[in-house]
Amino acid sequence: MKIQIHGAGISGSYLYFLLRDEFDVGIDDVRAYPDCRCGWGITYKEAKKLYKGISINFDEYILSKPRYVITDSLKIKNRNIVTFDRARLLSELWKELEFKKIESKLEVDATGFKRAYLPRIKNDKIYSAIQTIERHEVDENIYAFGSKTGYAWAFPLGDGKWHIGAGDVTLERAKLLVEYLRKIYGFEEKGFECSCRAYIRFLPPSKCLPFMNGNVIGIGEAIGCISGFGEGNTPSLFSAKILRDCLINSNLEDYEMRILKEFKWIEIEHKFIEAIQEGKIFKFLLYLLKVASIEKKRTLNYSFRDVLSIIVNQIFRGIMR
Known about the structure:
Layout: E1 2-6, H1 10-19, E2 24-28, E3 41-43, H2 44-52, E4 62-64, E5 68-71, E6 74-78, E7 81-84, H3 86-94, E8 106-109, E9 126-135, E10 142-146, E11 151-158, E12 161-168, H4 171-185, E13 194-201, E14 212-213, E15 216-218, H5 233-248, H6 255-262, H7 264-278, H8 281-298, E16 300-301, H9 304-316
Parallel strand pairs: 1-2, 1-8, 5-10, 8-15
Antiparallel strand pairs: 3-7, 4-7, 5-6, 6-16, 9-12, 9-13, 10-11, 11-12, 14-15
Helix pairs in contact: 1-5, 7-8
């Protein structure tokens, strides 16, 4: 089978290396070089295992292993989140990509929020994001500040560098969130090494159907593989692996079902965020417990006291308003 991949970001480049030894694969991208927008955080164990499958030592790209995630006056122990040099990793992968377009039986939409080849999503939800790289003398933790519709973050990149940004329904709201983050955690605005804007699809996979249309099939952010907390790197890699497995086993008809099954946890996180946005306290409490259980296994070492503090903070910050 001849396969054309459109988009050489995290999911598209990874899929290329998964397939190139067993299929005739072409890949193309509208960019001249990979950008560094968003995407600095990732779950370590999963990323290490996945990249090992294409002979990449992921440890070589790690920038920082923060001890804590600090948000809502909580200090939660980090167990599996690292920041990595996404731009360098992609740049080195691109050196081995053979960019070309071929006559193909299957086309893969790996174009992220653009979803350039699959049908448009009814009631799509695209958030604006801003990012800067700055230098600060602050303890190397992950800092976050959330609102009903978005959140701001500060990720340590090692050697005093920080990735500071926010995502929200509008650019203006994202900028306001960054201002709050700076005020609360002491990230004084004093110039930056680079800055950029981006867009994020904020929908779970179930709301991004179809994943397949004619001879086009989607992976990554194009089909909603991004968590309720904005984590997209690991889910995007997993989606590419699932597609590879379906191709190898000649069961593409199972692809949509497998994606929905694999990412049930993403659906739960989005329902949790919806409860906050809608101000539904009982729905919020129900999904908070589920989300805390999911993330304790995946990322953070939550305690009962942490969960209780989140409940109290959200109520006092106006979840019902």
